[in-house]
Design brief:
The chain is of the alpha+beta class. Helices cover about 65% and strands about 20% of the residues. A four-stranded antiparallel beta sheet has the order 1-2-3-4, with helices on one face. This is Mce associated membrane protein.
Length: about 240
């Protein structure tokens, strides 16, 4: 009996000795497990800090890139503004200057043309009046000289036809029948005129005396065409209207 009791006591003693070890191991395991989260937390915080730093650097890099792109590539509005300024500077302004120069040249030419036409109209009307009086006026004693001088106021085919008429009909008749004629021009108007040619409408009154008879008066209108020969207006056509 005493041996059995001794064995039981030894067994209990061994169990008591082992259990604290088991408890220590359990405590140790728990301590280890408690320590592990702390160790895992520290790398996580370091990783998060690194990622935050990298994200900040990426953001700053992106901002710099965007700023660089904004500088290198201005907006479409700026591009359009630059293009329009070039168009205005190198396209519209020279074209406008050319148009203004052409307009000024045309106005000057037009003004000169109008002035020249006015001068031509005035001088041609006076020439038509004077020449018409000379063509239709003569006396029996001076008919050859008077009509010969009038012939110098003509040109072209009309000069030839007038010369034939006066030499064949007017001069012999004036001498034979003592015919005299006096012409006057109460009115004349320019129909058209340019520096080289003019047309004048002439109203003519002519008084003709044959011998000792009473004079007769006639009124007529003539369309006179003149050409500028040198500095003189000469009659090229003399058409009764």
């Amino acid at each position: 009996m005493s041996k059995d009791v001794s064995k039981d006591l030894e067994t209990d003693t061994v169990n008591d000795t082992v259990e604290p070890g088991v408890d220590d191991a359990g405590v140790a395991d728990k301590g280890t497990e408690a320590t592990k989260p702390t160790e895992a937390t520290e790398p996580t915080e370091a990783t998060e800090s690194t990622e935050a730093t990298e994200a900040t650097e990426v953001t700053e890099t992106s901002a710099v890139d965007e700023s660089t792109e904004a500088v290198e590539h201005p907006s479409g509005t700026a591009k359009r503004s630059i293009r329009w300024s070039r168009v205005v500077a190198f396209g519209l302004l020279p074209a406008l200057a050319l148009v203004l120069a052409l307009g000024a040249g045309y106005l000057k030419w037009r003004d000169n043309t109008v002035r020249t036409s006015e001068v031509a109209a005035k001088t041609s009307v006076q020439a038509a009046k004077d020449s018409t009086v000379a063509l239709l006026s003569y006396t029996p004693d001076k008919v050859e000289q008077q009509l010969g001088d009038a012939r110098n106021l003509l040109t072209g085919e009309f000069r030839d036809s007038y010369t034939s008429l006066t030499n064949d009909v007017v001069i012999p008749g004036a001498k034979q029948k003592q015919i005299s004629a006096v012409a006057s021009v109460p009115a004349a108007a320019s129909v058209s005129a340019n520096p080289s040619e003019a047309v004048v409408l002439v109203f003519v009154n002519q008084t003709v005396t044959v011998g000792g008879t009473a004079p007769t008066d006639t009124a007529s209108s003539v369309r006179v065409t003149l050409e500028k020969v040198g500095d003189r207006w000469l009659i090229s056509k003399f058409d009764p209207v």
